Amino acid sequence: MTAEHHRTLAMQAIYRINTWKKCWPVWEVELDKRSASFSNPKLVHDLGSHLREVFFATNTGARGQADLSGGGAGWECLVTWYLNLILSGTNAVAVRQSKAVMPETLLDATTIRYGTHQTNTESDVCVIVYPADFKFPAPDAKFMFDLNDQVEKRIGDIELGIIQCKTNWNDNAQIPMLWDMVYRASFGSETNIHIGKRGYNVKHLKRFSYSFVTVPSQKDSLKKKSIPNSSTQMAVKRVSGLSGGNYWGMPTKSGVALSVSEIFDSNFSNAFKVNVRASVGNAIVNKLGMFSP
């Protein structure tokens, strides 16, 4: 058994979202022409540097971006799709946080409790890296129940990356900064703040990271509210120290943000038996994961 059934469930959850149904016919055309119909490993990997262009392809002018792309929901879906495309054939899966497709144990581990109040981070997307020898259950109706059973047994061998996706950078950069600080902190009993529940905590994982991935939706100019373009800007400083890094749907700009295509080497390298592009090439040739017809 492999991770592909879990990937299938994660993507089926996205395919049911109305935002995805409206946007995918347009996005698919843009993605197809930028990747040689998903046949060129380099171009497929480099899609991460063009996700902003793809995302805005649904902005026709007649209808606003919020109408067609569903704002944040559309961006989360597109990022999750891209992550699973590159992770095809590996033991890593990207999911939008949901009890239907996220193992309960990992939801418990990322829960924050303040007094009697419990909450989860605005994670948006989670990438789970299973160990190479992980025993995936049979792809039947009990799959998620049985998967969680295995996760409970192997939590110390599992890596988890939380990815907060936002369309706007300037207005949201402080949110991932604060959540990352919370997950990295050690709270004394006097604070009444606890990370995790039912005996599970992110510190029990093999590796945990927190990242920010933005479009960004601001205009590419030097005007106020434009795309952050300098390491000295507050919006950049706020996410510069995230444990998992700061990314956007454009080419890497040193000191500002990395292309989303760099997130695999940064946070999920253990998912790959070979380098990222070779892995994508193998998935294409062998029709694995998202490359299967």
Shape: globular
Query: What is the domain total for the residues?
Result: 1
Low-confidence stretches: 62-69
Helices, by number, come to: 12
Give the termini separation.
19 Å
Widest sheet: strand ordering? 1-4-5-7-8-9
Structural class: alpha/beta
Run of helices and strands: HHHHHHEHEEEHEHEEHEEHH
Strand count, sense and closure of the main sheet?
6 strands, mixed
Radius of gyration: 19 Å
Helix content: 25-40%
Beta fraction: 5-15%
Overall mean pLDDT stands at 87
Work out the number of β strands.
9
Structural overview:
This protein is α/β, with parallel strands linked by helices. It has one domain. 38% of the residues lie in helices and 15% in strands. The strands form two sheets. Strands 1-4-5-7-8-9 form a six-stranded mixed beta sheet, sandwiched between helices. It has a three-stranded antiparallel beta sheet with strand order 3-2-6. Strand 2 and strand 3 form a beta hairpin. The longest helix has 17 residues, at 18-34. It starts with a helix and ends in an 8-residue tail after the last helix. The model is unreliable at 62-69 (pLDDT under 50).
